[in-house]
Amino acid sequence: MSEPIDIKTKKILPQIKVAKFEKSLVLDSLEQNILSHWETWGKFQQAWTNTAYKTFKDLEKYLVMIYLIRNYWQNLSDKFNYLSMDGFYDNTNVTIDKINLIQISNELNIPKETIRRKVNELQKSKVLYREGKSITFDKKGIDFQKPKETIDLLSSFIEKKSRMMAGNEWFGESWPKEKIKEFIKKYFTIIWLRFFKLQIPFLTRHRDCFGDLETWVVWGNIAVSHQYNLSKNNEEELIKDKSVDPISLKNYYSSVVSVKMKRGINASSISDISTIPRATVIRKLNWLVKQGCIVKNKDLEYTMTSKGKMNSKIASNFLVNQNYVAEFLTDIFDLMKNSNFKL
Q1: % of the chain at pLDDT higher than 70
Q2: What fold, for 211-317?
Q3: CATH (residue range 53-155+171-209)
Q4: Is residue 294 helix, strand or coil?
Q5: How many CA atoms lie within 13 A of 297 on its CB side?
Q6: What pTM does this model have?
Q7: How distant is the alpha carbon of residue 211 from its chain centre?
Q8: pLDDT confidence of 238, banded at 50, 70, 90?
């Protein structure tokens, strides 16, 4: 973790040697509470991607934009600097120098020409403008991606993980949501840089698996429904039989897929939740059915199936994602509890 800077004096703040959280401890805590944790994570990601799609109507375009903004914040961090949320969004413009489309293409695994097209579309929408190898976001462009709803969503998510880990000797007390939100706003570019470092690879992995992010979102709405039913069914089974085998990281995804569903979710509901047009949702559902990872019942409702050839890759992604989430939370809790960044 870089040494903190006092943004007013530009001086490095004195470091205090403190114990840091071990990612393994955070990961263990998540596994011990895997049902409630992953249901919370699923709902958070669903809400976040729905908000992004509602704003951009194109998740690849959103992915390119947050990649560019992430690079700007990384440059701040490399210079031992940061901005509060108000400080960043008070800027009249933000310029990212030396943009390399090939580098963006390689990191996001999106063809160079697609990257170029998305940048041109953002320029046409007056979200940014390009001069040579530099890209500038003006005031409209900066405000366009202001995470008004996501700040609240992320604060709530971190609070729930904080309460989950509270009581452990290595963790200490939990933080309330409003305190977390205040901390995020004060050290905005530091926290959001880490958030994007979590989310950009997360989106990229799913895009590689599902072909495009809209298909992943459609599938994700079905998965969230399964997650909810798994948690509910498991509680009922534990009440009836306390000897029920616990759900772990390794068997979680297979448990989600195979949970008994009384009802599925239909195309109209997915469209309403995600704001993706119904015709597009139906097209994505048909593709997922052909891949064998979902099935349609006589009521035109969709559920997951364990027979699809994609399931092994999705399950593998799940385990990778779990490690990324643990790493993100470890870093955030270190900043909140063990660093010189104070409220």
Answers
A1: 91
A2: Arc Repressor Mutant, subunit A (1.10.10)
A3: 1.10.10
A4: strand
A5: 12
A6: 0.86
A7: 18
A8: very low
